[in-house]
Amino acid sequence: MAKGPAKPPPAPALIADHVSDQDRPTRREILTRVGAGVGVLAGAGLIGRLTWDHGGFGQTVGTGARQVRDYRLKDPSEHAELAIARARIDEISPDAEVIVKRAVDALGGMKRFISRGDVVVIKPNIGWDRMPIHAANTNPNVVAAVAKLAFDAGAKKVVVADGSCNDPARCFQRSGIMKKASAVGADVILPAEHRFRTMRLKGDVLDEWPVFTTLVEADKVINVPIAKHHNLAKFTAAMKNWYGVLGGRRNRLHQNIDTSIADLATFMRPTLTIIDAMRVLMRNGPQGGNIDDAKDMHTIVASVDQVAADAFACTLIGQHRDNLP
C-alpha cells in the first residue's frame, strides 16, 4: 500500500526550508526541547534545522563543522516518500522478495535510486547471535531481496556489512544473512579492526569516534533495519541501526542513547531506508531469544526519510513517535 500524494510527517528537510537564520535556536535550546519529550519527529526535525546543507561537509553547527555522510537523491520527485507494503490476504506463504519490491516500486522503483556502475552498501541489523525466528536481526530474505534489486538496477558491486554486538562470525552465520546475501552475489564484510578509522563527527554525544569505513565508502547506502522493541530506546529501526557504524565501547553511549541516535541520524543520511517488519520483536529487545516475543507481520516500510519511516514503524509495536525522545 503506497501513501501517494499525501506527505509523510514533517522531515528535517521540509522544516529547514522554512527557517531563517535569525529564527534558528541554539543547540542548548534544541537539546532542552528534545529532552523535554518533543518527540522523535520534532527532535530530529529541529536538529535538521542546524545541519541541513543538502549533502556537504561545510555546514556550521555549534562551534565547528559537523561531519555528514549524505547519500540521498538530490533531485525532487513526485513519487511517494513513504510506502507500506503488506502480504495480501490470499498469500499463504508471503514472499519477502515480492513485498520488498512492492514497497520500493511504490517509491519509483530501485532504478530511481541506483545508477549503473554504483557501489552500493546495504546496512542490515546483524547485531545478535540469533536465528531469523527470533526477529533480533534483519530477515535474511529481505537483505537478499534488496541486494538483488540493486544489482538489477545496475549496481556494479553490492556490499553487506554491519558492526555486530555479539561475535560477528556467529551473528552473520546464524542470522542467515551471510548465506542469503552471498547467494545473490553481494560481498559480505565482517567488522575487523583495520576497517575502522577514527572520525570527528562533532555531535552532541558523538564527537570523536571509530567508524566502520566500509559502511561510509559507497556511491549509495541503503539502510535495512528490522523493527523491534528496545529496552533503552523503546524502539529501534532506521535511526538506531546506525549504531552498527561505530566501533569502540558503544555501551558508553547508552547513558544518553536518544541524543546519540540523533547524532548518528545526522551523520548518516541514506539513499533509501527499507524497514523489515516481516517478523517483529514486540518485547525484550534488542536481543530477544524467545520466539513467543516475536510476531509475524509480513510488512515492509520503504522511505526516503528515515525519521518518517521510524515514526510509522514504531506503531507496529504499539509505540508512538511522541514517546520516543
How do the strands and helices of this protein lay out in sequence?
Elements lengths: L11 H5 L10 H9 L4 H12 L8 E2 L2 E2 L3 E2 L11 E5 L9 H11 L12 E6 L15 H13 L4 E5 L6 H7 L2 H7 L3 E3 L6 E5 L7 E5 L7 E5 L1 E5 L3 E3 L20 H11 E2 L2 E10 L12 E10 L2 H8 L12
Parallel strand pairs: 3-13, 5-6, 5-10, 6-7, 10-14, 11-14
Antiparallel strand pairs: 1-2, 4-15, 8-9, 11-12, 14-15
Helix pairs in contact: 2-3, 3-9, 4-5, 5-7
The helix-and-strand class reads: alpha/beta
Instruction: Sketch the topology as an H/E string, one letter per element.
Output: HHHEEEEHEHEHHEEEEEEHEEEH
User: What percent of residues adopt helix (DSSP H or I)?
Assistant: 25-40%
Low-pLDDT residue spans: 1-63
The amount of beta strand, in percent, is 15-25%
In angstroms, what separates the terminal alpha carbons?
28 Å
Mean pLDDT: 84
The total strand number stands at: 15
User: Total number of helical segments?
Assistant: 9
Oligomer: single chain
Question: What's the main sheet like?
Answer: 9 strands, mixed
> What is the CA-atom radius of gyration, in angstroms?
18 Å
Mass-distribution shape: globular
Would you mind describing this structure in some detail?
With 325 residues, the protein is an alpha/beta fold. It is built from nine helices and 15 strands. It has helices at residues 12-16, 27-35, 40-51, 96-106, 140-152, 168-174, 177-183, 257-267, 306-313; strands at 60-61, 64-65, 69-70, 82-86, 119-124, 157-161, 187-189, 196-200, 208-212, 220-224, 226-230, 234-236, 268-269, 272-281, 294-303. Strands 4, 5, 6, 7, 10, 11, 12, 14 and 15 form a nine-stranded mixed beta sheet that branches. Strands 1-2 form a two-stranded antiparallel sheet. Helix 5 links the parallel strand 5 (119-124) and strand 6. The longest helix is centred in the middle third of the chain and has 13 residues, at 140-152. It is globular, with a radius of gyration of 18 Å.
